[in-house]
Amino acid sequence: MISRAKSEALFAEALNHIPGGVNSPVRAFRAVGGQPFFVNKAKGCRVTTVDGDELIDYVGTWGPAILGHAHPKIIKAVQDTAAHGTSFGIPNPLEVTMAKLICASAPSVHKVRMTNSGTEACMSAIRLARGFTKREKIIKFDGCYHGHTDSLLVRAGSGALTFGNPDSAGVPAAFTQHTIVLPYNDVDAVKAAFAANPGQIAGIIVEPVPGNAGLYLPKPGYLEFLSQITTQDGALLIFDEVMTGFRLALGGAQQRFGITPDLSCFGKIIGGGLPVGAFGGRAEIMDCLAPLGPVYQAGTLSGNPLAMAAGIANLEELQMGGAYGQLEELGQQLAEGMSSAAKAANIPLTVNHCGSMFCGYFTSEPVWNLADAMKADRERFKKFFHGMLNEGVYLAPSQFESGFISVAHTPADIEATASAAAKVMKSL
Ligand code: KE4
User: In this structure, which of 177, 294, 340, 396 has its CB flanked by the most CB atoms within 10 Å?
Assistant: First the structure.
């Protein structure tokens, strides 16, 4: 059992001053029950709770920690940069370095604008798509999460799913009337939407590998289909690669699946753990942004030198090569280990994984979309989550989240995780 005394005292205090005691809902453990633990240090693939327990971490601060926590090159980059100031609000050289790194890595990105979160990146990309096409409607897919911007918080994934209020309070119907929500992996639904709205759809925004309702993959040909139908209709294809960017390959899902989206959104890894987002694409689209064009978009801390320094250190380390092959192997090992554990315990489990992203659904059925994911046994997931936590393994605290493996995880860590899963599953 992990000890809790200090975390419980901190949480009690947090509840007095922070809504739900957390600064982001998914951290509150509402999907799994119990109280969150507090962490004030982490190293490699482990986090250390304030009560001194070390846990193998498969959340990785929701994606940024692909090199593991407190990577020395990231720490040094932030320390060295901070010594000269933390923000200027004036262009700084690191912004140019970051822009060149993203453009060199993501095949479809010729120009890029930095933001301070993935939400900002997706919100801005949608505005840009509408400004560029002079159209209003946007297609998203249920279970996909693109941050908490009003017009996209409709049947979203991640925490919005957990709370059972997929359409958030405070979002006027008028703000989502131009948002069309379709099932993921359903070609006919997309064809019907375009047929019903000819020449009116500004774009499709999609997580190429949805990681906010657990993890499910595009069916063969699906992403190619989205690219074709948007091109035919004059709409834009927006890949939300906040999670998959620099995760599934150096060039993200667009490189892994060989798709050229019109716009791409990034976050997480490109900030090395500091607040960041970005969106980019062809120059003819990006140059519609202020100060060149009529689409306004801004941010006091966009391109912040500390976030740039941390992100550049992350990306340059990933560019060194070797990381993605290692992550593929670890992902395969974990998927096999979890599946074997479930089989031995005679527990129905579908493990979806793509590179270093994974999710185990407690169902015997395949999971290709949100409707499939909703069939998973969430009560069993809750027990599994807490059982694994007590074995020293921290999984994402919701059935509707993806797990993340880092290059700091070793085959021995994966083996230990699979052994813990085998033990816990026998008790489910
Ligand atoms: P942020 O605004 O949280 O930086 O990014 C929003 C976002 C956009 N697009 C995708 C594909 C995302 O996964 C996210 C954020 N991911 C969640 C994890 N499911 C962040 C965790 C949280 O909300 O605390």
Answer: 396
Q: Indicate whether this model's pTM tops 0.85.
A: yes
Ligand 1 pocket test: pick from 116, 119, 126, 145 the residue with the most ligand atoms within 8 Å of its Cβ.
Answer: 145
Place of tokens 């005292």: 9
The first and second tokens of residue 293, run together, are: 């064009």
Residue where one domain finishes, among candidates 272, 293, 319: 319
How far apart, in whole angstroms, are the C-alpha atoms of residue 63 and residue 56? 15
232, two tokens: 């035919």
294, 295, 299, 302 alpha-carbon torsion, rounded to 10°: -100
- 116 and 138, same domain (yes or no): yes
Q: Is the CB of 159 under 6 A from ligand 1?
A: yes
Assign residue 245 the CATH number of its domain: 3.40.640.10
CB of 122 sitting under 6 A from ligand 1: yes
Task: Kindly state whether residues 119 and 253 are assigned to the same domain.
Answer: yes
Task: State the SS3 of 396-410.
Answer: CCCCCCCEECCCCCC
Q: Atom 8, ligand 1: which residue's CA is nearest?
A: 146
